[in-house]
């Protein structure tokens, strides 16, 4: 069974870069036909798609975040990563990694990232 | 950018039918999926490609999509169905979520 696990700092200072990694087990990013992505959820609010990446490195990004996002994939480690630059308090959220662009049946458990000095 | 609109809340009595809508321009031309999310948990896919149900999801969950509105219906609603429900589509190379509906089972 596919499992996804987010990892990274739980606290990031304003103006700095938020960096998260999603480790995949029970399946291979390299041979997958699906995109892998990040979705976030501010406390008490709805879901917001951040972006998605294919094993080739091809990406789709949320236009509203595109200027601050970089996603990468490391097939040798079976991981993919998110960098979000110039963070503010508005970026405080639970960050989920997931498989597929839509019809997402596989989600990580989520990791809370707080932006605060 | 494409927008999906969901009512903030819906209430239903146990055993009754709950219906939640998701509205968007020409939504019927797109595939809609639905998730439910309980507090402290990750979202769970309950309907995909408008009407299909993952194997683990009970038959009481069903979906439809036509015109500008998609609907998620829960027949014989149970207390365990109380959750937030989100619709989602893929449009113009972006993933779009609705704002979510909180289903309360009174």
Defining traits:
heterodimer, A: 117 residues, mainly beta, seven-stranded mixed sheet, four-stranded antiparallel sheet, B: 106 residues, six-stranded mixed sheet, three-stranded antiparallel sheet, 9 strands, 0% helix, 46% strand, globular
How would you describe the overall organization of this protein?
The complex is a heterodimer of chains A (117) and B (106). By secondary structure, chain A is mostly beta strands. Chain A is 0% helix and 48% strand. Chain A is built from no helices and eleven strands. The mean pLDDT of chain A is 97. With 106 residues, chain B is mainly β. Chain B contains no helices and nine strands. In chain B, the strands form two sheets. In chain B, strands 1, 3, 4, 7, 8 and 9 form a six-stranded mixed sheet that branches. A three-stranded antiparallel sheet of chain B has the order 2-6-5, with no helix packed on it. Chain B is globular. Chain B starts with 8 loop residues before the first strand and ends with a strand. The chains are: A mainly beta (117), B mainly beta (106).
Q: Using DSSP, what is the number of strands of chain B?
A: 9
Q: How many strands, which pairing sense, and closed or not: the largest β-sheet of chain A?
A: 7 strands, mixed
Largest interface: A-B, 21 and 24 residues
The residue fraction in helices of chain B comes out at: under 10%
Order of helices and strands of chain A: EEEEEEEEEEE
Write down the overall geometry of chain A: globular
**Mean pLDDT over the full residue set of chain B:** 97
